[in-house]
Amino acid sequence: MNSMIEINTDTCTGCGLCLKVCSRKILKMSKGKAKIMDYPDWGCCQCGLCMSVCPSQSIQIAGLDYSEFAAPSDTKMGFEDLEVLLSSRRSIRSYKDKGIDREVLDKVIRASALTPIGSPPTNTEVLVISKREHIDDLYQDIVRCWKKTMKSMNNPIYRVVSGRVAGANQYHALTSHALPSASICCEATDSGKNIFAFDAPVIILFHGNKLGVCIVENCWLAASYACIAAHALGLGSIFSGMIPPIVNMNAEVKHKYGIPVENNVYSCLMLGYPAVKFKRRIPREHKDVRYLNTNPFYVEGAVEKERC
Ligand SMILES: Cc1cc2nc3c(=O)[nH]c(=O)nc-3n(C[C@H](O)[C@H](O)[C@H](O)COP(=O)(O)O)c2cc1C
Ligand code: SF4
Ligand code: SF4
Q1: Span from the CA of 25 to the centroid of ligand 2 (angstroms)
Q2: Quick check: CB of 90 below 6 Å from ligand 1?
């Protein structure tokens, strides 16, 4: 892996910046020049941070090209503008009957690739579904599979087996939230309302190999950036907690949409042009925020209280 790194010792000024930023800490200084360590603990992961910082373009990572690295912009968005952008985003449950141009979708996808990555290179894969017939087809599959799952869950043996397979947390999420929600969504479907996918004209599935490092987080970060980028482009969006589990439980659904069976869908973002305009931003706060000011090991009486 480390043969991927080439350093031009004629132009390297020995500034050491690449050592400071290297995500694998595999570079060192030798005779005033950057050099790959003799016995690095890791291989180069091609994150490109060294190339991003090098003033003289002296370090070259295989597969990366300086001509594709854009200069960072001097014009920074101020915090107030960013806060307005973030706080004016809303989950949209009503869409105009209007598709999204490919260039606009490309921008959303481009932005979604700019997140931090658990362990570069990225393992996130993206499926964009933007044709009406495909969206309708997926919707039919989702409804059919949820109905089948709800029916199966009436069977005590199926319940025990799925509890074992899913694990305690997933099973709790399934029975306490997903199944009751699915029941409501399926009933709505029977009366002609699509509250699984809200008739959004585009659905994006973020997926990856189940064993991939930080794959859940990578998919969620990508989906979050996509959601913000969509809002900045005048689109509305909403996450679906109902689509990923049902796709993941059904190999034939995965197969139909070209999702490898060893992959899972971790986040699903539906988007389109909003049919409603919100007039106010909603204040939002975390459940709890604490700044730890005292030594946590010596909170008076805390240990005794725990023991009681
Ligand atoms: C992980 C996750 C899953 C979600 N799944 C659904 C869903 O299946 N159906 C839905 O109507 N909204 C879903 N939402 C949207 C939230 O319910 C939404 O954020 C909430 O209504 C608050 O509105 P806001 O996003 O405009 O602040 C989901 C959001 C997240 C983060
Ligand atoms: S690409 Fe990343 S891991 Fe490889 S040498 Fe550069 S900074 Fe280090
Ligand atoms: S950042 Fe570039 S010039 Fe500076 S030490 Fe690394 S390779 Fe050499």
Answers
A1: 8
A2: yes
CA–CA gap between residue 117 and residue 271 (Å, rounded): 24
Tens of pLDDT, residue by residue over 5-49, are 999 999 999 999 999 999 999 999 999 999 999 998 889 999 999
Asked whether residue 118 is domain-assigned, the answer is: yes
Q: What does the pLDDT average to over 187-193?
A: 88
Q: Is 238 in the pocket of ligand 1 (CB under 6 A)?
A: yes
Sign of CA pseudo-dihedral 239, 243, 248, 252: negative
Domain that holds residue 134: 81-272
CA–centroid distance, 36 to ligand 2, in Å, is 10
Quick one: 123 and 266 in the same domain? yes
Q: Is the CB of 242 under 6 A from ligand 1?
A: yes
Whether 55 and 92 share a structural domain: no
pLDDT over threshold 70, residue 1: no
The values of phi and psi at residue 155, to 5°, are -85, 120
* Residue 46: CATH number of its domain: 3.30.70.20
Phi, psi at 285, each rounded to 5°: -140, 160
Is 283 a domain residue?
no
Q: What is the rounded average pLDDT of the residues 209-213?
A: 96
Which of 68, 92, 117 corresponds to the end of one domain? Answer: 68
Identify the pLDDT of residue 287: 96
Q: Are residues 50 and 195 in the same domain?
A: no
Q: Does ligand 1 lie within 6 Å of residue 123's CB atom?
A: no
Closest ligand 1 atom to Cα of 242: 8
**What DSSP character marks residue 38?**
S
